[in-house]
Specification:
With 340 residues, the chain is an alpha+beta fold. The chain has 2 domains: 188 residues, no CATH class; 92 residues, Alpha Horseshoe (Serine Threonine Protein Phosphatase 5, Tetratricopeptide repeat). It is built from 13 helices and 12 strands. The chain is globular, with a radius of gyration of 21 Å. The N and C termini lie far apart (59 Å).
Length: 340
């Protein structure tokens, strides 16, 4: 018997990693199987650490991505009046209440606690529990669930300067719980969704809001998506927990909520870049430093210091691609896109 916490986590993961013929949510999926599960999986066992050269676990998510996800109350971490945003990077030890998400007795940060289900389903992090990888019994004392040990001599810690995760966060969402990374990688294959039902609900809600502003129909479609993650509806969550309790009552406010909801729900599915481009929000995101933790430190207090890995460059002209010079010569009626 699984806890409600793990059931919800698997519901979120299976919307993406369930075999396509068994997944009722998929509208359209990529034809080849997704072949990067090994890159998305942290090393969880001694044998996987030895085989780091063949499955490097290099797919990384920046701190800014994990901070997108809501608190357990279903509102942004910057808005939740009950959540300690200022103290999010202080050290906290895993406790019994969070045992299905965070390893008991393990030091991590306060910001990993009291988050919504999609955070734990989508992100793997130092101290985070990993359901699966051959261990599917949450209460077996002889074979406890794995957890990510990414500091010092931990299996998931950097093995060298090449085969490493550069931020300390892995896209767990892209790995089936039935896949096993031990002495080699044994994937449970799936096809990455290109369009799935939750995405359509949020697109429809977005369009409705742009036409009519906040209506009961808009909230109904957003709330359908939130319900699977165990969250209250938008109106209840913002009214009860947000520092901006009326945010959902205006078109602009609800637009911000829907945008963040899409980035959370479709995280790591190849949708956010296109959404941010059409919203004209991509420049702000891709001009911000890519930050991760200080990976070479073994103790928690020094590991959990944000470190800039690199600063991407995205200018206004990058919203549109240039037209080839050849095409401009062949057809003088064409006009080059701005700034190119």
């Amino acid at each position: 018997k699984l806890s409600d916490s793990i059931k919800r986590e698997l519901d979120v993961q299976n919307a993406v990693t369930e075999k396509w013929e068994l997944n009722p949510e998929i509208i359209w999926a990529s034809n080849p199987e997704f072949n990067y599960q090994g890159h998305s999986t942290p090393r969880l066992t001694a044998k996987s650490a030895v085989n780091a050269f063949s499955n490097p676990s290099t797919f990384s998510a920046p701190i800014s991505t994990q901070e997108l996800f809501y608190t357990v109350n279903g509102v942004p971490i910057t808005e939740d009046k009950t959540w300690d945003y200022a103290g999010r990077n202080t050290i906290k030890t895993g406790d019994n209440a969070s045992r299905y998400y965070i390893q008991q007795g393990y030091e991590t940060i306060k910001g990993h606690f009291a988050r919504e289900t999609r955070f734990y389903a989508d992100m793997a992090f130092d101290g985070g529990v990993w359901f699966g990888n051959g261990r599917n019994n949450q209460d077996d004392p002889n074979n406890p669930l794995y957890f990510v040990s990414a500091r010092g001599s931990g299996f998931a810690a950097p093995s060298d300067n090449i085969r490493l995760n550069i931020t300390g966060y892995w896209p767990k969402k892209l790995v089936s719980y039935a896949s096993v990374y031990d002495d080699g990688f044994q994937p449970s294959p799936f096809r990455l969704p290109l369009i799935r039902l939750a995405g359509l609900y949020l697109l429809y809600a977005e369009a409705l809001n742009e036409v009519n502003g906040p209506t009961a129909e808009v909230f109904s479609y957003v709330d359908k998506v939130r319900q699977r993650a165990g969250l209250q509806g938008v109106q209840a969550s913002w009214t009860n927990y947000s520092k901006s309790p009326n945010k959902f009552s205006t078109k602009d406010g609800l637009r911000q909520i829907i945008h963040q909801e899409r980035r959370i729900e479709l995280c790591f599915e190849g949708q956010s870049g296109w959404d941010l481009r059409r919203w004209k929000e991509l420049q702000a995101v891709l001009s911000s430093p890519i930050q991760g933790w200080s990976l070479n430190n073994a103790d928690a207090i020094n590991y959990y210091r944000p470190t800039t890995q690199f600063i991407p460059v995205f200018g206004l002209k990058d919203y549109l691609w240039p037209i080839k010079s050849y095409d401009l010569v062949v057809n003088p009626n064409l006009v080059q896109n701005p700034y190119w």
